[in-house]
């Protein structure tokens, strides 16, 4: 992040969609597990076309339920951050350093990895590690610790007496950073300068791993999508073939599946202009006029459900903070706001429930929490015809409920209703506490029998 984002005095949650644990700040890495349920309404839209089938809506072949891939959902989040700042204001120029997109349209990933901002952060992190190791090394005399640190930071003043020593330290540091091999030199063991250089050589034996770790941390610091979803950056560039090029993000999303069968519709469309003169010569039609044919595919109506998992263990590796999590939840609620196209005008988020555990490992199994969020059909019979409906037609055809959860009205100061889920172990003791936050809920709530 930029220095502005890293300033703890200035950094605060913009949307208050997460609850900070005691003694935690917005800039702290998220330390507890989260499980989320996301519900998306699709009306006369194509939520996720399959290019292998002419962009028809994706479907599960055995159940005929609609599908949306995790890649599709992540793209919506990326698009939101490409248009808006973390506080929800319109993005005028390039994204803030810390909220840039790694996977974006037209990007060359090697150039993204070797971006000047990324390289600068990686080198700064690597330099800091070298200085720390030098300060902690007992084999280096105190007088040389400060001199070596200044040299690797580029702060050493030119001095005729120290020039030879400066050149040797700088050469070692440059070789360690660039990953090259340094020529062996003859050293007199009885001189303090040579003892310091010998100790520095031992420190820089681990330079390769530390350099690669620094590049990974820099990528996560600059790009929000890498920090959240992870990515493979070991194909080209400084992390080619590196273990640290396999970045696992803390946020993993399942495929979204419709609650019921979907009714896919296919329409023919015409265009009254041709793309080229060759196409004009082969165009057909009763009226002529350069008319060409095309097709559009939509789903009549469906509600899709997705599960989202958040791992604090991987958040610690990528540096994903409470500030990031609050902005991610905000992006989920608005990811279809500007994602409007002719086949996606009827897309919106109608449900988002966040289960916030109190420990890193979690206080309850995710599937048990997901089962507490129930959405079912309530339009079994069409009141006009008296026959059972084959497909839902609106959100009013559904009802939702939360087993065992009673949400407050937000009087505690939270912007969203909160409920607590307490489970009892076999001995009757308290198994743990999970806070459920109803971030979005536009589904009619009814008592289900």
Helix and strand run? HEEEEHHHHHHHHEEEEEHEHHEHEEEE
Number of strands: 15
| Low-confidence parts | none
Structural class by helix and strand composition: alpha+beta
Question: Largest beta sheet, briefly?
Answer: 9 strands, antiparallel
* Gyration radius, rounded: 29 Å
Helix content: 25-40%
Describe the structure.
With 449 residues, this protein is an alpha+beta fold. Helix content is 30%, strand content 23%. It has helices at residues 3-6, 70-83, 109-113, 116-135, 142-152, 163-178, 192-203, 207-222, 224-229, 277-282, 312-318, 322-333, 366-371, and strands at residues 34-45, 49-50, 56-57, 65-68, 230-232, 246-248, 251-253, 256-261, 264-271, 292-310, 347-357, 373-377, 398-402, 418-424, 430-441. The protein is elongated and about 100 Å long.
What's the layout of helices and strands?
Layout: H1 3-6, E1 34-45, E2 49-50, E3 56-57, E4 65-68, H2 70-83, H3 109-113, H4 116-135, H5 142-152, H6 163-178, H7 192-203, H8 207-222, H9 224-229, E5 230-232, E6 246-248, E7 251-253, E8 256-261, E9 264-271, H10 277-282, E10 292-310, H11 312-318, H12 322-333, E11 347-357, H13 366-371, E12 373-377, E13 398-402, E14 418-424, E15 430-441
Antiparallel strand pairs: 1-10, 1-11, 2-3, 4-8, 5-6, 7-10, 8-10, 9-10, 11-15, 12-13, 14-15
Helix pairs in contact: 4-5, 4-8, 6-7
In short:
The chain contains 13 helices and 15 strands.
What are the main properties of this structure?
single chain, 449 residues, 2 domains, two-stranded antiparallel ribbon, 13 helices, 30% helix
């Amino acid at each position: 992040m930029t220095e502005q984002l890293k300033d703890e005095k200035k950094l605060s949650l913009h949307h208050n969609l997460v609850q900070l644990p005691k003694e935690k700040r917005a800039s702290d890495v998220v330390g507890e597990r989260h499980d989320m349920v996301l519900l998306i309404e699709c009306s006369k839209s194509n939520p996720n076309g399959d290019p292998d089938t002419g962009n028809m809506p994706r479907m599960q072949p055995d159940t005929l339920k609609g599908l949306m891939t995790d890649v599709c959902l992540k793209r919506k989040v990326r698009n939101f951050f490409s248009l808006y700042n973390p506080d929800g204001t319109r993005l005028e120029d390039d994204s803030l350093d810390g909220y840039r997109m790694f996977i974006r349209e037209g990007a060359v990933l090697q150039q993204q990895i070797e971006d000047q901002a990324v390289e600068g952060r990686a080198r700064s992190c690597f330099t800091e590690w070298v200085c720390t190791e030098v300060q902690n090394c007992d084999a280096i005399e105190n007088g040389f610790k400060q001199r070596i640190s200044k040299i690797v930071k580029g702060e050493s003043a030119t001095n005729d007496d120290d020039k030879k020593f400066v050149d040797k330290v700088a050469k070692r540091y440059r070789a360690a950073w660039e990953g090259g091999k340094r020529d062996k030199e003859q050293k007199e063991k009885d001189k303090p300068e040579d003892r310091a250089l010998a100790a520095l050589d031992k420190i820089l034996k681990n330079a390769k791993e530390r350099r690669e770790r620094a590049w990974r941390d820099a990528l996560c610091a600059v790009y929000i999508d890498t920090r959240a979803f992870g990515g493979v950056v070991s194909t080209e560039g400084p992390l080619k073939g590196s273990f640290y090029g396999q970045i696992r993000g803390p946020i993993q999303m399942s495929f979204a599946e419709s609650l019921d069968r979907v009714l896919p519709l296919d329409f023919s469309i015409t265009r009254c202009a041709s793309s080229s003169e060759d196409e004009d010569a082969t165009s057909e039609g009763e009226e002529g006029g350069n008319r060409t044919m095309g097709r559009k595919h939509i789903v009549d109506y469906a509600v899709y459900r997705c599960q989202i998992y958040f791992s604090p263990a991987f958040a610690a590796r990528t540096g994903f903070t409470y500030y990031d999590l609050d902005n991610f939840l905000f992006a989920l609620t608005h990811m279809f706001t500007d994602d409007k196209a002719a086949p996606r005008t009827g897309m919106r988020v109608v449900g988002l429930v966040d289960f916030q555990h109190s420990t890193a490992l979690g206080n309850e199994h995710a599937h048990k929490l997901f089962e507490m969020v129930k959405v079912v059909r309530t339009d079994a019979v069409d009141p006009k015809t008296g026959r059972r409906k084959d497909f839902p037609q609106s959100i009013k055809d559904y009802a939702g409920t939360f087993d065992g959860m009673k949400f407050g009205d937000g009087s505690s100061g939270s912007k969203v209703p909160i409920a607590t889920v307490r489970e009892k172990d076999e001995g009757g003791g308290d198994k743990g506490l999970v806070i459920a936050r109803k971030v979005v809920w536009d589904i009619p709530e009814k008592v289900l029998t």
